TrEMBL record:
Name of this chain's protein: Octaprenyl diphosphate synthase
Cofactor(s) this protein cannot do without: Mg(2+)
Function: Supplies octaprenyl diphosphate, the precursor for the side chain of the isoprenoid quinones ubiquinone and menaquinone.
EC number: 2.5.1.90
Claim: Magnesium is one of the keywords in the record: yes
Native source organism of the sequence: Neptunomonas marina
One Gene Ontology term of the molecular function aspect: metal ion binding
Biological process (GO), any one: isoprenoid biosynthetic process
PANTHER family xrefs: ALL TRANS-POLYPRENYL-DIPHOSPHATE SYNTHASE PDSS1, GERANYLGERANYL PYROPHOSPHATE SYNTHASE
Length: 322
């Protein structure tokens, strides 16, 4: 079951977001439109725009602007994917060729820029300065998170704190923005707005932690990307950081060397070390703790089917295998 199918009341709104996205990818430059459609229609659960809808509804919103606001969040997310795949030299995303693998790096970066600018055009139409402030700040923090990740790449001395700083910026920030702007649009109380902001942040951290676990557990078919991509790129994610803490000297040196040089020559023995040291369980437990905090934050909201769905999403985030 897809996340949007958890709540029948949200499905028509979710379909309206998809229609809005497709209808606002128009461009006078055919390649822009072609790549935009390819990446936006390329699968994905649309979790971030769904969060906008659920947050707004959970705060009693009755208008229509949450549809376009959800599309804004998806445009920004898609732009970051286009840029990430270029930075990471990725060739698979959601089980398909990446845009940069099909059309090259330059068009991918520029279409990412187009999607960023289109999102701000839509925000101007919405016309809420508080929403613009949250989203403009989020895009800035996301960019900083990506640069920080780049600096940590191939650095085996990256700490757990430095890693968390990266995922809060590059992943959790957009989750947080999605739920917060939904609350703002609905005219939520300051307490409800803060609650949804915290919910989004903790959910986003949990989501990324499980993503990092799956890099060592899932098949390429389940992941929609190549297994071991993080290791191949020399990314010191939490499973590797924890494995280095717990491994013997030989195992620690093997992981350090693999992070420094990147590549997958030692993938099998490293996956074994990650498993044997309990690093998978450690990361899963950290994700569960974040999901628990996300659910706890929702106590400030009135009971509704939308609040219940937000709670379900937090459970699903840590139980998923793909």
């Amino acid at each position: 079951m897809q996340p949007h199918q958890l709540n029948p009341l949200i499905e028509p709104q979710f379909d309206a977001v998809n229609d809005y996205i497709i209808n606002h990818l128009g461009s006078n430059v055919p390649l822009v439109e072609k790549i935009g459609h390819y990446i936006v229609e390329g699968g994905g659960k649309r979790l971030r725009p769904l969060l906008v809808l659920l947050a707004a509804n959970a705060c009693g919103y009755k208008g229509e602007q949450h549809i376009s606001l959800a599309a804004v969040i998806e445009f920004i997310h898609t732009a970051t994917l286009l840029h990430d795949d270029v930075v990471d030299n990725s060739d698979m995303r959601r089980g398909k060729d990446t845009a940069n693998a099909k059309w090259g790096n330059a068009p991918s970066v520029l279409v990412g820029d187009f999607l960023y600018s289109r999102s701000f055009q839509v925000m101007v139409d919405i016309g809420d300065m508080a929403i613009m402030q949250v989203i403009s700040n989020a895009t800035n923090v996301i960019a900083e998170g990506e640069v920080l990740q780049l600096l940590n790449c191939k650095n085996p001395d990256t700490t757990e704190e430095a890693y968390m700083q990266v995922i809060i910026g590059k992943t959790a920030m957009l989750f947080e923005a999605a739920t917060e702007v939904g609350a703002i649009l609905a005219g939520a109380t300051p307490e409800q707005r803060t609650a949804l902001q915290l919910y989004g942040r903790h959910l986003g951290i949990a989501f990324q932690l499980i993503d990092d676990v799956m890099d060592y557990l899932s098949s390429a078919e389940e992941m929609g990307k190549n297994v071991g991509d993080d290791l191949a790129e020399g990314k010191p994610t939490l499973p590797l950081i924890q494995a280095m803490k717990q491994a013997d000297d030989e195992g620690r040196q093997l992981i350090r060397q693999a992070i420094r040089k990147g590549g997958l020559e030692d993938l099998d023995p490293i996956m074994q070390i990650v498993t044997d040291t309990g690093a998978i369980e450690y990361t899963q437990n950290a994700a569960q703790a974040q999901a628990d905090q996300a659910i706890a934050a929702l106590s400030a909201l009135p009971d509704s089917s939308f609040k219940a769905t937000l709670e379900q999403l937090a459970h699903i985030a840590v139980k998923r295998s793909a």
